[in-house]
What we know:
By secondary structure, the protein is an alpha+beta fold. The protein is 31% helix and 22% strand. The strands form three sheets. Strands 1-2-3-6-4-5-7 form a seven-stranded mixed sheet.
Amino acid sequence: MARGKSLKIFMMDGDAAGRWICTLAGRTTKAYRIPRSLCKKCGDIDELKRPAVYLLFGDEDDSGRPIVYVGETEDAYTRLRDHEDKKDYWSEAIVFVSQDDHFNKAHVKYLEGRLYEIVTQVDRYTIRNTQKPASAAIAMDEQAEMEDFIDNVTVLTFGMGHKVFEPLLKKDIISNDLSDKQVFYIRNKANTVDAKMVRTIEGYVVLKGSKIRTSNTKSTPSWVKKKRAQLIADGTIKDGIFTRNELFSSPSGASDLVTGNSTSGNKMWKTETGVTLGEIIEKEKQN
């Protein structure tokens, strides 16, 4: 059974747009959220001059995906000031330190490699690292400590508004039979469309491997044409097939893009047995 967690946020500047310190009750993991414009004010924070792992976040790139850079350092303050001069795409940094001053160079190298690996697997953000970080070899007991630290990092990062470590589909949906998780389909007789979608807490996820109609017609919405071009450009759609899971905020948005027409997602998306999404939603309202 999942247990609750207590997240504490201290606004260092008394302003929600300023610097934050975030901690989890009973844990030694501490996160500093630092807007780029306020890096220079952090020179007197001793914890930021120790070994740390950090994330740089930027606005969306041309593909519409937010940007992240994963890094490690033995002096976070100096490294961030250096990034101010050499990297222009980021607007916010989150630095993770251990409150017991336990980290060494090998620990943060291990953390950098693992966090990069998770970000890559989740595939929500465009990664700005020019190459994959080289992970460090550490003892088995130290690995267990670092993995526990990573669990805390994912919670703290989400708490500060970034879903860089949050998979679109949770492990229980991936590992269990999807037919039991309200999977919906759009298929046609001509076999030009064969798409699969799952409802999640965040919205509607069209699954990797879904086949869509790529040709446009007079009734194809302009936003669909633009979105398709964007997804093709960033590799999400290749030869009419989704290469990764893609989140939509509405079922109609998902069905419009899949079919190339203006549609009602509640009517178009159906279970394997032919029950529409709309019918299921109506039943849920009555319960």
